[in-house]
Amino acid sequence: MKHSLPPSLKKRLQMALLIACLVWQLLHYPLGQLHSSRTLDFVATIPLTNYGEYIPANDTLRTKPFVDETSLFRKHPNNGRIDAHRWNTAFISQFDDKHDNTISSSLINSELHSKIQDRDYLVDCGCPKTCTADALNRNELVINQPSSAAPFTCRERIEKYLRHGKTEREACTVAFEEKFTPCDSACDPRKCKAAVVMPSVKKILDPVLPTYQGNGTEHILIIAAVPRSNRHSVALWSELECIATFYDEIIISSPEWSRSLIDEIVRQARQRLKINIEARYYVNDRYDVGLWCDALQEVLDAKGMDLIKTITMLNDSVYAFRKFSGILDALSHRPFDLDMVGINYYNHSDSQWLESVLRGFPIRSIPIFNERICQVANTKPCSKLGPIKRKRCIVEKFEIEAAGNFFRNRTVGLFPSNPPSDWHLADRIWAEQPRFWKEVLVEKMGFPLAKVKAEPTHLSGPTDSRLAECTRMMNVSFLLNFNYSSFVPR
Hints:
eight-stranded mixed beta sheet, Spore Coat Polysaccharide Biosynthesis Protein SpsA, Chain A, about 30% helix, single chain, about 500 residues, two-stranded antiparallel ribbon, 2 domains, 14 helices, alpha/beta
């Protein structure tokens, strides 16, 4: 015999369940976000780099047309967060004007920039610590201090750390974590008017030159440098000034014949940039991958894996023309979710391809890289091929196959390598697409690099004025006038 609840009791249980659901919603979402049953999650929970959002390498949005305002945001199938379609150029609010909420995406074009320019300027302390000037300027007394204590702002606290040599990222982190500061409340994105910022919005707390702090080895950068000309040596210096300064230890891995030049670059970098840097020299018989792997092996032999958190690999084939810590930021924001981060992902291929020019790995991924890339490179599988086939061999074995050694949803590319198919352009990467590089990657997405071999379609050369930000501390005459003809590459 089946038993059923009395109708009155059933109604009371249903009502209790409904109330519980409403209470749960109120606890987890601000009231301003409950105007729609399809409310998107809080925008400031997007994983960010210094220059905006990044999306997993298999994200299907990347195949959408360049201007597709309807797909700017979507629910992430795994973690419920929002992924921004970074190919869009429009500034689109996530909430109707009738709702008092200014949470928005700042993929800003020149036409709409003026709409927010006068309202507020923004400070990006790294997700989720992104706050408006209003919150940073809010005066609050230090908790448990006498009433006569002078008020201070969250901005003043952060600027204090910047004056003491902290980078912006470090200063923001320390300021937010301190127990008795207004930063906890004034700059918590759940309590202030938060917005995602892109490079087109001027950041007011960007230090002129981040400096190395301490003697740690948590985050290591290995640069494969083969300086056959002043273009490559200037490219190397620009990387030191705008990328390497975010790392605890930098190793330049170069062929033996370049010792006289690299030794002087290292000496000047220590003196001018105040970074922890050294050089290692090897026989350059396996291209960049050989230089990376040889230096990597020395690092592991000397330090082991216990003290290292991430290892990033870069080469001197690109100029850096703005500060960039995106690889390190991505690995830091999702330390247990990512096995590999590359600055560029190839969009039209069924295979995973994160370009090798700049890639980062958490330390747990290094044994896989060492076994499946470095050990293969030791056999010199491409050395006997002609130039064209040799290049293709290197791309297949050490770029495409590198990402293929990890699960697809655990690899991330920060910027697309090639234009959307809707542009109907040749299927070539950004280095061979000057319009795509300039109009999309640089102007809309904050891309920080230019290809050395793409002169003059990217930059005019090592003296291009656009390199000014990353060559402020460079000894110009030394690098430009060095006698490169004395080198005998081997």
